[in-house]
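Quick question about two entries, pasted in order.
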Amino acid sequence: MQGGPAPAAEVRDAAGSIAAIVERARALHPSLPVIVEVENFDELEQAIVVAADRILIDDFSLADMRRAVAISAGRVPLEVSGGLDLDRVRAIAETGVDCLSIGGLSKHVRAIDFSLRMLA
């Protein structure tokens, strides 16, 4: 997602059928990609079956990330979100996931005050 997040229909905390929710999202917003956040392997399988445009695997362990990559087998891009920090980037990338979302890059930015005035 270079340049910031693009518009998308994002499914989070799906209560019920992921298929029904994705179908509804596509009906309401046919031009937008549908991104589904999953918290377990059952939800991952459901998101793959409905051909989500991207799947967010939230708070998975490294072993579970590797398993998710094997299950998806490249059918849907996987993005890791939740609890990421720069110390874990390499280990997470080595699991084979397609994308990483690190909220700390924007949430924990410190402002600085400087002037561009020139002295004559």
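Here is the second entry:
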Amino acid sequence: MKKLLILLCSILGFVSLSFAQARLDTNVFIFSRLLPVSPTQVVTVQQNWSSTGAPLQLYFQSISSINAAKTEKLVSLKTGPFKAQLKDVFVWNGVLNLLTSVYHPGPGRSNFLLQQFDSKTLKEKHSQLIDAVATPRPSSDSPYLGYCISPDSSHIGFYSWIYAYSEDSVRLNVQVYNRSLEKQWSKQYTLPYLNNRFLINNCALRNNGEFFLFAENYAGRIGAATVIKASLIEHMALHMRRDVDTAKVLRTQLAKGAHFSSLKFGLASDETLYGIGIWQAPRFTTESGLYILKMPLGAANYTQNIEEFPKTLYQNAERLARQDSVLGEHYTPTGFFNYTIYKLYFQTTGQMYLLATSGNANMLIRFDDQAKPQYLSIIPRMKYGFFDALYDGNLFIKGDTAFFLQTQIEMPAETPYKLVRIGPKGELIHGVVQSRITGRRPQFMLSAFYCEQIDDHRIILTATDNQIPYNAPRTLTFRIEEINQVFKDN
């Protein structure tokens, strides 16, 4: 994966009407991601090596998969003498959105700017200052600014963290806009926590404009030699509404001595708020289990369920992983509590999937519409090369079916990919990728890291050439496919 990040910057054009290619300049740009705009249109995003001290530059390409139309644009993120930092690039409301921050060291203030570009012509359509607040010098991954989009894409919300002094109380600005970027409501909140003990992880926004902020607070003492104890971390969701001036704190509660190994929040398709966590309690033996927080739309209160880990499901998944004819040799058993939740996938039918990783394996749990586990599957990660490097992996979901794709691009002589479908009882069913893009091997190697799911039916399959050395100029090829046409059982 790391070597795939080194990819280049000028367009070569199309091999055919169904393939698109991009050639990238290793010395100037790093390939970042593919953004689906429509079932036939994508925008590729590349950025320069800004660590060299040069101002950050983004190179966009809007490419169609059905004709030779393409557009290119270079954006330099510099405001006067100040260099901007990239927060995110995303597609919303049919346009390309660029969210950046510019730090002004004199007043110690960050300006947060949103720019919008037409997704086909890449011409700038709108630019707007979202907020200007006191912050320390931010990095690209600093939590002082964040955004979230409502499930129906009718609203976008932003939070900005006012952080002047570490011992100050946490202050936040929250703003919610409609599709026309007209402000629907905004408020400033002061929370009973200190800046240097607080951490914002993410946010979520309901269709009616209700805003959730997912955060942590450390209840212990903070000093230069402090060793953070997981048992002293307080996890919470903050519920904010336009008609209420204070934030409601949804606190998670576990049994005494227990703490979270990991915890993720998110909104289901019916806008129910969920918090799903893996907890552990070190006693004579380490106990562990699942934590589920639930707050339906319109409810004033939330419920919390603390359950023992699904032992029968887990033991069955371990047995199937060990016995798998291909993946079993790569599997090393580990405890349930050693898995870290990567992402929650919410389905329109009410079910959800939890994907977690332990380093050499992935765990997938499917929940029904009442948040009860239906199956648990363990997918060992394949290894390649002398140093047993892990294959890249990506999960794709179509209705009631989940697929896990693993790929490697560095060793053409070894297995290039492995696809498994997760059966109704969590079993691993081996499959193949029947696409013209895989037929171009060994010139092009499928890359799970850059494959993207567009919707319930379509996927972007992405491949890169395997030129040696690995920092040589590369060609990236992608193809938009129907999932049920390319993912087949053996």
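Reply: Residues 311-323 form the longest helix (13 residues). The first strand starts at residue 20 and ends at 24. Hope that helps.
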